[in-house]
Amino acid sequence: MHGEEKRKCGLKIPYGINLFVSEENSFCLKLFDLTDTRIKKLIVSSFDITKMNLKNTTIEELFLTDEASIEFLYSSVGRSEPCVEKFSFGGKSTPNSESFLKLFERVQGGESVAVRKIKMLVLNKNSFFDFLKEARIIPQKEIHVEDLFVIQSGRESGPETSTSTKIVVSKSINIKGNACVLRFVELGPEIGHLDIASIQRQCRSPGMDIPRINIQVTKNKIIIRGNQYGLRFLKKNITATDVGFF
Q1: Contact 52, 72 (CB under 8 A)
Q2: Judging by DSSP bridges, how do beta strands 221-224 and 213-217 pair with one another?
Q3: Could you give the maximum distance between any two Cα atoms of the chain, in Å?
Q4: pTM above 0.85, yes or no
Q5: Is residue 20 part of a domain?
Q6: Helix or strand or coil: residue 49?
Q7: For 117-156, how does the pLDDT look when each residue is reduced to its tens digit (9 = 90+)?
């Protein structure tokens, strides 16, 4: 059977499902025909996505979970790039590595801000402030993401705001730990339930002991866990319909 005929015999996936591909399960790809279609979400772990036959296929969201998947894609730039509408970067990556930052810069669109090109950005393992320091090489002073997830411990207040990149979040934000993360965040209109300016003023105050926060905010939901420090920063006219304190 010729290559083209063999490809056509592969199973076509229905639109709307998510695919997870790793080095361990990649042998299953030969069962599918992934050309001439749309993939809603493709999650990749330690695998070179350019090995997949994605001819004439659009990936609505490509989730790169770890450093290996980012390195593979970065190395393929200019050779065999898939058609991707939105990127997500997972928590097993290294946000201050050269490959991460260069790929991130490319996704952002070079010299112009490419709004909504990044679906999710996960910065855990206390990598948020390190990422901001290194992100100064990216031409844009604002990084636009739909969803931001951060775990940052300690009492560090972060780099100087005058030279730092801002992260503009439009759909959801989840912060665990250091409230000073919010010094470098702007919330879009849909999730503007917090008085960010007040939090930022407190974080800039010398000698101010800022408690840890554990807060999740979306358009219709606000969840505050642990201590209730975040409560004082809720706006009076919030429109969220689901508010919980634990």
Answers
A1: no
A2: antiparallel
A3: 73
A4: yes
A5: yes
A6: helix
A7: 899 999 988 999 999 888 887 877 888 999 999 999 988 8
